[in-house]
Design goal:
360 residues; alpha+beta; six-stranded antiparallel β-sheet; 11 helices
């Protein structure tokens, strides 16, 4: 599908777009800042690297993926999230599924040529759509890793987790659609307990135990698995979850993607909400929807219209939207709400992870 390749290329050069690969509880993210120095900028090969991280997408595979645009509710009624999931059929998405620490050899496919001599280890998380790895040249860490290959990272007394947290090797998420590499320190004791800005990773055992493959708030097609995500600029909050003045251009850009790549009934439902508002019907007259994604689309549409109305003066239209929100966007219903900035409030490899992977 050439159109998704064009979309992905456009977003690779947009510093506001965030990327992620992994699974529920283990994920690597690539971000870049405006004007940040590029060590690799090979758009023809869908590759980009900064001093903090790197990404490469496989040209052949991304053309076979199904993009799913989605929006998510925030616990705060003036916000919402959005993104696109790149999905492959289950029988094409699977990776090695290793359950123990495994040495893979030199990382010959690293995005930066200088990293290709580093030794790659799959840390053995048994994820269906991602081999979650570390890469290092550190002789002390290599000795610990090689002495404990074949063991689970979470075995009691396994020293590997503590050694990883102490030495900050590169983290590398490998999927059928490409790879993301993180060069920054692991969020934890050496970073004040929070993730660094920009590329970072997460390994949270309590989420891994759930064996969920993706968020239930994404309408993934049946028999498909998301193997990567990208998150274009959000019109109401930045990548760390701070409020922004409403950015109408960012809103319009994502709405175009939503029209093209969302579950087909959801743009139609959005149009029905706008029609109901235009006709000034009472919110109780609007047809109720039992499907979770439909309910979320109605609520998010009202939030968006409220921000648009405030941006352009509001008046009676703003009052009408507020009335609809009182009925159809009940803040007490948080079943589909997601954290606005999950990567910046705790250690990346979590305080809860340290007792499980450290010695003693």
């Amino acid at each position: 599908m050439s159109e998704i390749r064009d979309v992905l290329r456009d977003h690779l050069i947009d510093h506001r777009t965030r990327w992620s690969m992994g699974s529920f509880g283990a994920i690597a993210e690539f971000h870049q800042d405006k004007g940040e120095f590029l060590e690799v900028d090979a758009l023809a090969m869908f590759a980009r690297a900064t001093p903090r991280g790197a990404i490469r997408l496989h040209v052949e595979t991304i053309g076979q993926s199904i993009p799913v645009a989605y929006e998510t509710l925030s616990p705060k009624p003036h916000r919402w999230g959005h993104g696109l999931a790149l999905c492959l059929p289950q029988n094409h998405a699977g990776m090695a599924g290793r359950k123990t620490l495994t040495e893979l050899g030199p990382d010959e496919h690293a995005v930066r040529p200088g990293d290709r001599g580093g030794v790659l280890f799959d840390i053995g998380l048994d994820l269906p759509q991602c081999d979650f790895c570390i890469r290092t040249r550190d002789p002390d860490l290599l000795a610990v890793l090689r002495a404990n290959t074949g063991r689970s990272l979470f075995d009691p007394g396994n020293p590997v987790g503590a050694a990883i947290i102490a030495t900050h090797p590169h983290r590398v998420a490998l999927t059928r659609i490409g790879r993301i590499e993180v060069f920054q320190k692991i969020g934890g004791p050496d970073t004040g307990g929070v993730s660094p800005r920009g590329p970072h990773s997460h390994l949270l055992p309590h989420l891994l135990k759930s064996r969920h493959i993706h968020s239930a708030n994404i309408p993934v097609p049946r028999h498909h698995i998301p193997v990567g995500y990208f998150h274009p600029a959000n019109p109401v909050l930045d990548s760390t979850g701070r409020d922004l003045e409403f950015d109408i251009d960012a809103h319009a850009r994502f709405q175009e993607l939503f029209e093209r790549f969302a579950r087909r009934d959801l743009p139609t439902l959005r149009a029905a909400v706008l029609d109901g508002l235009a006709r000034k019907i009472e919110p109780e007259q609007f047809l109720a929807h039992s499907d979770r994604f439909s309910r979320a689309t109605v609520r998010i549409t009202l939030r968006q219209q409220y921000r648009l109305a405030k941006r352009f003066g509001g008046g009676s239209y703003l009052d009408l939207i507020a009335k609809w929100c009182d009925v159809l966007d009940r803040c007490s219903d948080t079943s589909m709400a997601e954290d606005d900035a999950p990567g910046y409030r705790a250690s990346e490899w979590g305080a809860s992870a340290i007792p499980l992977v450290a010695t003693g």
